[in-house]
Amino acid sequence: MTIKNAVSRLPLFPITADINAQGHLTLGGCDAVQLAEEFGTPLYVFDEKGLRSQCAGFKKEFGQRYADTTVVYASKAVALKAILSIAKEEGLGLDVVSGGEMEIARAVGVPMERLYFHGNNKSAEELKMALELGVGRIVVDNFQELALLNGIARDMKRTPDILLRISPGVDPHTHQYNTTGITDSKFGIPLSRGEEAVAAAQKAGNVKLVGIHYHLGSAIFEVEPFRKGVEVMTDFIAGLKKKLGFEAKELDIGGGYAAQYVIDAPPPPIADYAEVVTATLTRQCRELKLTPPRLVIEPGRAIVARSAVALYRVGTIKDIPGIRCYVCVDGGMGDNIRQALYGAKHEALVANRATAKDTAVVTIAGKYCESGDILIRDIPLPEIAAGDVLAVATCGAYCIPMASNYNAAMKPAVVMVKDGKTKLIRRRETVADLTRCETV
Q: Distance (Å, rounded) from C-alpha 214 to C-alpha 293?
């Protein structure tokens, strides 16, 4: 019974997660309790083997079904240098959405032709930077951007390859904040104006339209929206070929591949997404008499989410009889705002007693001065005490990039683990870091 509790949660942790003879959670061969003592808490721990495994998994599952596939890591999920270096080494391209992400990619030597530059409101400065660096694709989001880019390219005497982002009007059945492929979205050109946009790109003399991009949303737990998206967009491309003589050489279907955050909500395996997408694309191209385009996919969350664990130290425990028991930790919404932002869920283990039997349902609260600073609501855990180390699973995506200095808190340190060895990939912030930009 004791082991069952621990084992049932382990699949949510990195692939190297285990429990040692002391009953401690281990990650990449490293004792999580010792990591917390050495580097302090809150602490984010990335498992290098897990990261590389997911990169390879997407390349294999899509590539063996559709040879002309390019896998592009959506770096907004977490854009630390160490993570982007691994993506580069594994042969992935990068989806970037700002000048900052472009600069980080350049800093670690990612070939610029592997970059896909996204964003619904790119500045003139960012577009100039993209042209100067020679990024592989600029994903044009709207008519205004098309005109702006065409003018900048003319002045710089460049002809960038572009994709047009079209909103297919497909509901991915995910959280409204993560939905991007419906018509009512700030992203992309509505499908109803897609032909107009392609015609405008054809007439623009300083850009080269090579394909179409769309993105349904994030954390999609069903494969049906992916099938529908490919069908809608290949029908659209077939219409473009007939009416405008344009046939897309690339079809970028974005990301949206889900990660598992709680025990009872597993996502489809990579193979299921790959089978639906590639089979539908192959069938549509055959039936519509289209030359099969290069397929581009942009997984982000699905690559990094499971690979990281957040470690916290337990402090105050507030038991309100008959109502709720709050277990307070030394982090919270400052390093993981996902629960407060859109009701995200996580699972956790008491890292120093990972095989202990669950005895009560508690709520994990953060230390920030907000009632909404809750990490996990109503989770069964063993008896817990001040000083325990709590390990929260599936924290690799969006926690670090959305972290803040609310309450003048310092952002946490981040380490990478592999084969019993640790590497500090981002140090903990100091008070000096908090005020380094101030001028008075």
A: 14
Tell how strand 421-426 and strand 137-140 pair up.
unpaired
Which residue reads 């994030």 in tokens?
218
Q: What is the CATH number of domain 49-304?
A: 3.20.20.10
Reduced to 3 states, what is the DSSP secondary structure of residue 233? helix
| 11 class by beta-carbon count within 10 Å (0-12 exposed, 13-18 middle, 19+ buried) | middle
Q: Is the pTM of this model over 0.85?
A: yes
- Taking alpha carbons only, the member of 234, 227, 237, 231 closest to residue 277 is 227
Whether 288 and 234 have beta carbons less than 8 Å apart is answered as yes
Structure tokens at 378: 């109503």
Domain ranges of the chain: 2-40+308-435, 49-304
Angle at 177 between CA 120 and CA 56, to 5 degrees: 80
CATH 2.40.37.10 is right for the domain spanning 2-40+308-435 = yes
Tell me if 365 sits within 8 A of 329, measured CB to CB. yes
Tens-digit pLDDT profile for residues 265-324: 999 999 999 999 999 999 999 999 999 999 999 999 999 999 999 999 999 999 999 999
Which residue among the candidates 55, 325, 328, 369 is catalytic per the annotation?
369
Answer yes or no: 369 catalytic.
yes
The beta strands (E) that lie in 321-418 are given as 324-329, 348-350, 360-365, 374-381, 389-392, 413-418
In sequence order, which ranges of 289-383 are alpha helices (DSSP H)? 301-304, 338-342
